[in-house]
Automatic annotation (TrEMBL):
It comes from Calocera viscosa (strain TUFC12733). One of its GO terms (cellular component) is eukaryotic 48S preinitiation complex. Belongs to the eIF-3 subunit L family. The keyword Protein biosynthesis applies. It is found in: Cytoplasm. GO terms for molecular function: translation initiation factor activity. It comes from the Eukaryota. This is Eukaryotic translation initiation factor 3 subunit L. Component of the eukaryotic translation initiation factor 3 (eIF-3) complex, which is involved in protein synthesis of a specialized repertoire of mRNAs and, together with other initiation factors, stimulates binding of mRNA and methionyl-tRNAi to the 40S ribosome. The eIF-3 complex specifically targets and initiates translation of a subset of mRNAs involved in cell proliferation. Coiled coil: none annotated. HAMAP family: eIF3l. Residues 587-607 have a biased composition (Low complexity).
């Protein structure tokens, strides 16, 4: 179905005739007689009129293309036309941003409100996009941070406290972005609030008065309220139990049957995973995902950004809980998905963000693979070594690799936040805070991670020696390691402990925290009296993957050859004449056919417009 895209076609003149009727004439300087001496105006009325005139002048400065887009966007939301809403949200808004507002703010909601008849719901949604643009393209000030929080509260209060389900339909991509941006702005505010030295007196006063602005309690309360209102946990349990749609609808009630509430509740679960990870509570972060299925068929896979973010935070939680095999499997799964879907998202506005998250997961995978060596997907590991080969080599060398661990962790970890703000209300405590500030959240979590790394920094060296023998005298091994026998036993116990991990079966549908203790390495050993007996299990090469990679390579080479132009001989052919002599005949020049749609004019192999020049001897 062809969709009429008024903003992508420079907002054609079809709406031009109706635009004046929709928005009125806002450039007039005022009706005559308003300022007659007989009319006495008080200060409030005069201020209101001045504000109205300023608003009219500001609206007159808005480009016509933007006005027509806003009118069309508002009408699509009122009609509940999800196709038009998606087109305007994912394409129109971004195109107009690049053209008119790449380095400036969009018009404020009060300026464009006459275009939409002062529709309060649309203005709330417009402000959500407005502040998202400010955070992503510009530098928000304290007023922007406070007002964005107030607008988010208005939106969620409308959805949660209306009499019955709100009559609103939005695309799933937008619903995810609402939750994702809400958490991002909370994270940004916490980071900004903790920097005491950059605050002036006015900002400190506002922070003292607005203690509930972007507080952890209010953010968590919103997410849990959306989950409860949507009955999403009951919906997931019922669908996993195989209940009929009628039974599911009866269980979840009127809110749970609406796609708007169901998806907001579902994305709020992912949001809780992110918030608890940012706060450093990795066990609770995985616990809230108990009823969420991690698969290609799950609802989270419908939105690529949600899909990638979910696997990133789950994998990071596994990493910090020292469940390295689970982290490896999680990262490999999503990185394979990104590689397969990369070609389909090159024009998506999410493309850059997905790629950045993918690069961070490659770094985390390098860390996990160094701490728990195992056989992983060859394509993924080749990419890891291409991107972080130098750091990966250092991390497998024991204590010498600590700087490499630190570098990759700082690059790839989430931007942690502190739950408690500085004591702005108490000058004495605030001065003490500035003299001895607490550790930065990232630094604190880095220290915890490096403590785990240091505890096993002798494992790579010990492993390298054990791989050379099937049995070895303990004293000889101790001499290799420059350690006494007691220290050797301690190192071997550390290696034995590191070779076992709580691992969740790949096909398990239960909690992400469940699992079994399994051996994660191909090298095992036992001590018999003074002899170390080593057993190494070898895994055969996966020939299937090797053949697939080479077949794909051959196919790419073949396609490249097919795209090359046909060779055309430049030597004219010689033809026989009746008197026995020969003369050269001019071969007709092969003229490219522009109608075939090729800009270069060179025919490709197998193309219908290819001309062959046959040379007869």
């Amino acid at each position: 179905m062809a969709q009429r895209n008024v903003y992508e076609q420079e907002l054609d003149e079809d709406l031009g005739d109706n635009l004046d009727f929709a928005i009125g004439n806002y450039v007039q300087s005022g009706a005559p007689g308003l300022y007659d001496d007989q009319v006495q105006l008080d200060q409030a009325t005069l201020a209101a009129m001045q504000m109205q005139l300023a608003q009219q002048q500001a609206l007159a400065g808005v480009p016509d293309a933007v006005k027509r887009f806003i009118v069309h966007f508002h009408q699509s939301i009122r009609d509940g036309n999800l196709a038009e809403i998606s087109l305007a949200y994912e394409s129109g808004w971004n195109r107009l941003t690049e053209k008119f507002y790449a380095k400036t703010e969009w018009p404020e909601a009060e300026i464009i409100s006459p275009l939409v008849g002062d529709d309060p719901i649309f203005l709330i949604l417009y402000r959500e996009l407005y502040y998202r643009h400010v955070y992503s393209r510009l530098s928000p000030n304290i007023d922007d941070r406070f007002h964005s929080y107030e607008n988010s509260c208005e939106l969620f209060n409308y959805l949660l406290n209306s009499d019955g389900p709100a009559p609103l339909d939005l695309p799933e991509q937008w619903l995810w972005d609402i939750i994702d941006e809400f958490i991002y702005q909370f994270q940004s505010f916490c980071s900004w609030r903790s920097k005491v030295a950059n605050k002036n007196e006015e900002e400190i006063v506002m922070l003292i008065e607005g203690t509930q602005i972007w507080s952890c309690y209010s953010v968590l309360n919103v997410l849990y309220s959306l989950i409860q209102k949507s009955q999403i946990l009951e919906y997931l349990k019922a669908t996993q139990a195989g209940e009929t749609p009628e039974a599911v609808a009866e269980i979840v009630g009127e809110y749970g049957t609406r796609s708007l509430y169901r998806m907001l509740g579902y994305f709020s679960i992912i949001g809780l995973l992110r918030v608890h990870t940012l706060l450093g509570d990795y066990t609770l972060a995985l616990k809230v995902m108990d009823n969420v299925e991690l698969s290609q068929k799950a609802p989270l896979a419908r939105v690529t950004a949600c899909h990638v973010a979910t696997y990133y935070y789950v994998g990071f939680c596994y990493l910090m809980l020292r469940r390295y095999p689970d982290a490896n499997r999680t990262f490999v799964t999503i990185l394979n998905f990104i590689n397969r879907m990369r070609q389909y998202h090159t024009r998506s506005y999410q493309y850059d963000q997905v790629n950045k998250t993918g690069d961070r997961m490659y770094a985390l995978l390098a860390i996990c693979s160094a701490l728990s060596p195992s056989r992983l997907d060859d394509n993924i590991m080749n990419t890891v070594k291409e991107k972080y080969g130098e750091q990966y080599g250092k991390m497998t060398q024991g204590s010498e690799g600590l700087p490499a661990f630190e570098e990759l962790f700082i690059y790839a970890c989430p931007k942690f936040i502190a739950a408690n703000p500085p004591p702005y209300e108490n000058e004495v405590q605030l001065a003490a805070w500035q003299e001895e500030p607490p550790a930065d959240p990232v630094t604190r979590h880095l220290a915890l991670f490096l403590a785990d790394v240091r505890a096993q920094d002798t494992v790579p060296t010990l492993r390298s020696f054990l791989k050379l023998y099937t049995s070895l005298d303990a004293g000889k091994l101790a001499n290799f390691l420059d350690a006494d026998e007691e220290e050797l036993v301690q190192q071997m116990m550390v290696m034995k402990q590191c070779s076992r991990s709580l691992t969740r079966p790949p096909t398990s549908a239960g909690s992400l925290l469940e699992g079994e203790i399994v051996t994660t390495t191909d090298l095992d050993f036992a001590i018999e009296e003074n002899t170390v007996v080593i057993a190494e299990s070898t895994v055969g090469r996966r020939y299937g993957g090797w053949f697939i990679r080479n077949i794909e390579h051959a196919q790419r080479v073949f396609d490249s050859l097919r795209s090359q132009p046909l060779p055309i001989s430049k030597t004219p052919a010689a033809t026989a004449v009746p008197n026995g002599q020969t003369e050269k005949s001019e071969a007709p020049a092969a003229q490219p056919r522009a109608a075939a749609g090729r800009s270069g004019g060179r025919a490709a192999w197998g193309a219908t417009n290819a001309r062959r020049v046959e040379i007869e001897a």
